[in-house]
Design a protein that fits this description.
alpha/beta; about 25% helix; nine-stranded mixed β-sheet; Collagenase (Catalytic Domain); globular
Length: about 260
Amino acid sequence: MHRISARKFLIATMVVFAVGALPTIVLANHSWNGYHWARQSNPFTVKMGNNVSANWQPMYTRALSDWSASGILDTGAAAGGTRPKSCRPTSGRVEVCSASYGNTGWLGVAQIWVSGKHITQGTVKLNDYYFGQGSQYNTTSWRELVTCQEIGHTLGLDHQDTNFDNKNLGTCMDYTSNPDGPPANTDPDKHDYDELVTIYTHLDSTTTVGQIARMPGAMSNIDYASPNQWGRLISGSAKTGVAKYDLDFGNRNHIFTFVIWAR
């Protein structure tokens, strides 16, 4: 009995040691409510229309390269399909725009048009009014953070953290008052890539990528550019620097808006 008990104790000790030696697995969990591009195969490419000025070209290029490193999707550069000032959406893709949108209070805005759980089109607006000469935001790191984060939203990602005062997580999906860090919040991190895999592992019976969306006419007939057109505030505020809005058209059709406010 003593010998058997000792053997059991040794085995149990070895099991505990082995479990303790395993690496800690941290799972990302910042999907934007499960919204995603419908597609029938992986990897797939979401085209990103280039409607940005020369000052934003390096950030646009870097963000597309970053998100394409996910392995499950590519963000493909494409000729712009809209005027930067209006930044109207194009079905089946994302339009990325920069212009002086005025004293709106926001640095960047990402919008997605959703039918059910499927993203049908998106836009990113980068407000040059706040990135001009002499502005605290007129730095490479601020431009990289805002561009990377807003494009991430159009892929279905939410934020990893929304507290400006917390220590940087080292991802552009983290709100911060100091994108330089350390660590710098200018690029995606492993959690972002893990979450994209989680979102896009399953396949759909249809596709919205590169397709003309069937939506209520009102969803595309108006330029939803100002806060009073964004619908219901569902989280955050201008004061906190974080805001999310839902414009509900019924029958599971929505326009969702993510905002980075100037502080």
